[in-house]
Amino acid sequence: MLRTPPQVTVLALPGTGSDADFAARAFGPAARAHGLAFQAVEPDPKAVVGSCRAALDAAAARGPVLAAGISLGAAIALDWAAEHPTAVVGVLTALPAWTGAETAACPAASSASVTAEQLRADGLEAVIARMRASSPAWLAEALTQSWRGQWPDLPAALDEAAGYAWPTLERLAGIEVPVAVVGAVDDPIHPIDIAREWAATLPSARLREITLAELGADPAILGHTGLAELTRTRAS
């Protein structure tokens, strides 16, 4: 059992173009299993980063926070934790996509930029149709829901995500709070080497590696494995 007081709130942030529903499915079951309060954030597509940080600030005003995030949400959660070390008891980072502010070679940033361009050129439904034809069914369903929910502001949200400056090695090395890192070994958008780099650089971190098939079968694997590793980190 995670040795965290029950007044802690698990605050979950989705990834680029995703929504609160997927974040809730990813982290909610583990939070409930540990008896922790839970909130999944619905990002404002007009201000993705600002709305996520505002939700973290609001949760911290009520009590200690366990910040959790997927992809971009993981970076926002970790950056916020670095700036609010006394407000956070730990961070769950799932599928980190990059290290460092220069993201020209970041697959996730490139994908977001290209998708934004296609949306402006071809419209939402045409891009959704192409995405569904090339994506696993679980991902296609999740993105169809979130993309339609964020339209017509989705292109701007994707551009904002593409321009986000990811944590540097120096920032990672300075974060003292316990961190769990969950990476997928076969995810080209979120390279496993990045997850391994984060886990090796963060002073108090543990890594769990999964597959995309496992994630598709049950998104709650992110929360369950992340909290298990965070428990081990806090106990060590």
Q: Can you walk through the features of this model?
A:
This protein folds into two domains: 9-100 and 165-235, Alpha/Beta hydrolase fold, catalytic domain (Rossmann fold, 3-Layer(aba) Sandwich), CATH 3.40.50; 107-160, no CATH class. The longest helix is centred in the middle third of the chain and has 16 residues, at 107-122. With 236 residues, it is of the alpha/beta class. A six-stranded parallel β-sheet has the order 2-1-3-4-5-6, with helices on both faces. The protein has helices spanning 20-33, 48-62, 72-83, 107-122, 124-134, 137-150, 154-162, 169-173, 192-201, 212-217, 221-235; strands at residues 9-13, 37-40, 65-70, 88-94, 179-184, 205-210. Helices cover 54% and strands 14% of the residues. The protein is built from eleven helices and six strands. The mean pLDDT is 96. GO terms for molecular function: hydrolase activity. Keywords: Hydrolase.
In short:
Keywords: Hydrolase. The chain has helices spanning 20-33, 48-62, 72-83, 107-122, 124-134, 137-150, 154-162, 169-173, 192-201, 212-217, 221-235, and strands at residues 9-13, 37-40, 65-70, 88-94, 179-184, 205-210.
